[in-house]
Write a structure and sequence with these properties.
Structural class: alpha+beta
Number of helices: 13
Distance between the termini: 39 Å
Oligomer: single chain
Largest sheet: 6 strands, mixed
CATH class of the largest domain: Alpha Beta
Shape: globular
CATH topology of the largest domain: Dipeptide-binding Protein, domain 3
Number of domains: 3
Length: 448
């Protein structure tokens, strides 16, 4: 009997010890390295740590409460009302009010908003639009509409960025430092501090991870296989970005036959197999197959004969192909330029930052959430097509997509994942629905 009791106590102690090792700890400094700046790019993950939106996307890609606790639509989705969360403060102690939310939203998108007007009505934010906007709760979760303080009350604009998020900027020096917001409305994060080193090459990031100088580093899609071969602990998302070729419809490419010729000349398979090392999926659709069920209907194979037939005797002047990003993006642009030269076009890849209006542009566009209609509208808005997408049947959605793609102003190429590698002391690391790291939920095993 005593022996049995002793064994039970030993098992209970072992279970408690295991639980203690796996339970999140408060404290510690997380070290993150990225190749960009993490802040000013459209997908800058630092913004998500410092700022909140009225809504946020859950793991299933559906909108859930953020700074708004509830919302409702009226007048056939022409009017939306979002009830603001009470007793929330910005990180400098200034109270969050409906007027301050409206000021932030008006400064974030000007004439490109998915609404016509936004007003503060008591503790609610009211959006009005000339056309129905059924996807507004999904769209408001995007980084573009995160809420920041625009006026601290002294008539001067506060420094970037003061929000209501789980972390606050401590300084703007390298490394950038974020400290936990003890008064965060969603509960204090486990980690005390995040140090972010920006502008770091992938090679140097992985080296720092291997020697313990970094805890979280990037893994571009084209390097996923190499990261797995090196036995890095990789957390990858499903496809959350669309690699696409934008084609201008004015000037040299105003003729739709020339645009169609360009679209048929691109070899997606070469991009997939060679440049991106078979990561992601080849596509000619705006959204992934698993989201709509009809992506396979759009032909993705190269048709050089058709490209020549469409171009016929039409001649185009030398064209510029703007590239958003370097590395694999520039290699992909060079491969596309080679494809287009074989179809009779003279194309020169250039850094998009050095040319305001290139004839073509190679970009990555976000595929936000799991809702097809909302994801399509968000993607089109990111591509400069501010049109609402109706929440109708899959057949209606397919027809709307086909009508848009027939213009040949946007040519889908690949669906790509996002991925990060983490060090051995990082616990509970996960990615949001759009592939961005959720560092507010992470913890460190060796935290005190």
């Amino acid at each position: 009997m005593l022996r049995r009791s002793a064994i039970s106590l030993l098992l209970a102690a072992a279970a408690l010890s295991c639980l203690a090792r796996t339970r999140p700890h408060y404290g510690g400094t997380l070290r993150v390295e990225v190749s960009g700046d993490g802040l000013h790019s459209p997908d800058g993950f630092l913004l998500r740590l410092v700022l909140d939106g009225l809504t946020q996307l859950g793991e299933d890609g559906t909108p859930r409460p953020g700074l708004a606790t509830s919302w409702k639509s009226e007048d056939n989705d022409h009017r939306w009302e979002f009830l603001l969360r009470q007793d929330v403060q910005f990180q400098n102690g200034v109270p969050l009010t409906a007027d301050r939310v409206v000021a932030s939203l008006n400064g974030s998108c000007n004439n490109t908003c998915p609404w016509t007007a936004v007003h503060a009505v008591g503790s609610s934010i009211v959006f009005l639009s000339d056309a129905p906007e059924p996807n507004l709760p999904w769209l408001l979760a995007a980084n573009q509409y995160l809420i920041s303080l625009t006026d601290a009350g002294d008539g001067r604009a506060p420094p970037c960025c003061i929000g209501t998020g789980p972390f606050a900027f401590n300084d703007q020096d390298q490394p950038r430092t974020l400290v936990a917001n003890d008064n965060y409305w969603g509960g204090r994060p486990f980690i005390d501090k995040i140090e972010v080193v920006t502008g770091r090459s992938i090679r140097d990031q992985w080296l720092d991870l291997s020697v313990g100088r970094a805890d979280v580093v990037e893994v571009p899609p084209e390097d996923l296989r190499q990261a797995q071969q090196q036995r890095l602990t990789v957390v990858a998302s499903p496809p959350v970005e669309l690699l696409a070729l934008e084609i201008g419809e004015t000037g040299a490419l105003a003729n739709p036959m020339l645009r169609a010729s360009l679209a048929d000349a691109v070899d997606r398979a070469a991009l997939f197999n060679v440049i991106f090392q078979k990561q992601g999926e080849v596509t000619a659709s705006l959204l992934p197959q698993q989201m709509t069920g009809y992506a396979f209907v759009f032909p993705a194979a190269r048709d050089l004969d058709k490209a020549h037939a469409l171009r016929g005797g039409l001649n185009a002047p030398p064209l510029t192909l703007g590239v958003e990003g370097g590395g694999a993006m520039m290699l992909a642009a060079q491969r596309i330029a080679l494809n287009l030269r074989e179809a009779g076009f003279d194309v020169q890849p250039v850094d998009i930052n050095r040319m305001q209006h290139p004839d073509l542009a190679l970009r990555k566009l976000p595929i936000g959430g799991a809702d097809a209609a909302a994801a399509m509208e968000g993607l089109l808005r990111a591509a400069g097509e501010p049109a609402a997408v109706s929440r109708q049947s899959s057949v209606a959605l397919f027809r709307a997509e086909r009508e848009f793609l027939d213009r040949k102003t946007l040519v889908p190429l690949l669906d790509l994942p996002r991925a990060y590698a983490i060090g051995p002391r990082v616990r509970d690391f996960q990615l949001d629905a759009d592939g961005e790291p959720d560092l507010a939920s992470a913890s460190l095993e060796d935290a005190p």
